[in-house]
User: Which sequence fits this backbone?
């Protein structure tokens, strides 16, 4: 089998896996699968003509398939969606993805390929964006190309060591006054020393599982990648809340929170949200809002 046929077979298997999850009501898994596949299709669409196995017309079709996958993914995340893209609509696209090399009919839905998402260097965002809310200051936040973030980059728990403690943080939910308007929200978790230097690999959660009133729910476990005893004095664990801005076509940091070493103890903890830009050195902190909105976490300590 040629490489291109293997690729198409892989896409079709991923499509089938996503629609199966969707029909079984496993929405978080379906969203992940749809977004991974949409990203793979977009990558192909963006590849130069001379290195692609697909014609420009086929690439347009792949781009439209990516749009439909994102629309279904968005419909699953937003219960109030008026223009919902249904599972039966998505299933109509299966023959297209399976037979992309020979498909020559009109695309069944009036959609456009997903526009290329812009990659910004940290700090560029400052000149592009003014936040709409009164209680959010515009500033430079770290920003990334969203497609590389979609499925999350969470890491497994480290092996236990005698006398050493590992920490699992469950990110339960975050309270925001405009929670329902955040697109593809996720949280970046990092562990920094007093100078803001990374002590651990940075991890991203998958996109949030649901939104409800003023809360965005994650319910995801993050395994801190260093034994607590090995973290230096003054270290802190940071949580940056990020969301996609379609008008600007980039992912923006909306706010951040952090937890210091003396706050590491088993059980629930609620921490305050601060205005961006993320201040890893913790020198100039400004609360995001006077309203009682927080990041809700639950800590579990594992000692061997």
Assistant:
């Amino acid at each position: 089998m040629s490489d291109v046929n293997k690729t198409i077979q892989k896409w079709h298997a991923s499509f089938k896996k996503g629609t199966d999850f969707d029909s079984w009501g496993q929405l978080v898994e379906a969203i992940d699968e749809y977004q991974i596949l949409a990203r793979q299709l977009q990558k192909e669409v963006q590849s130069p003509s001379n290195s692609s196995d697909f014609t420009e017309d086929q690439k347009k079709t792949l781009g439209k398939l990516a749009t439909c996958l994102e629309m279904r993914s968005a419909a699953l995340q937003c219960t109030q969606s008026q223009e919902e893209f249904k599972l039966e609509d998505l299933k109509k696209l299966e023959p297209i993805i399976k037979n992309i090399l020979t498909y020559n009919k009109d695309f069944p839905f009036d959609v456009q390929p997903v526009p290329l998402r812009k990659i910004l260097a940290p700090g560029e965002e400052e000149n592009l964006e003014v936040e709409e809310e009164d209680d959010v200051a515009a500033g430079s936040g770290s920003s990334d190309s969203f497609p590389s973030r979609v499925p999350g980059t969470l890491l497994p728990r480290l092996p236990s060591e005698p006398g050493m403690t590992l920490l699992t943080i469950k990110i339960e939910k975050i309270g925001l006054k405009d929670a329902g308007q955040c697109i593809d929200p996720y949280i970046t978790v990092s562990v920094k020393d007093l100078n803001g230097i990374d002590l651990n690999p940075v991890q991203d959660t998958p996109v949030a599982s649901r939104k409800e009133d003023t809360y965005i729910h994650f319910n995801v476990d993050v395994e801190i990648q260093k034994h607590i005893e090995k973290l230096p004095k003054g270290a802190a664990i940071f949580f940056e809340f990020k969301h996609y801005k379609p008008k600007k076509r980039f992912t923006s940091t909306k706010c951040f929170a952090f937890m210091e070493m003396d706050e590491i103890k088993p059980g629930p903890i609620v921490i305050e949200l601060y205005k961006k830009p993320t201040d890893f050195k913790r020198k100039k902190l400004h609360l995001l809002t006077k309203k009682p909105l927080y990041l809700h976490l639950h800590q579990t300590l594992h000692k061997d």
About this structure: The mean pLDDT is 82.
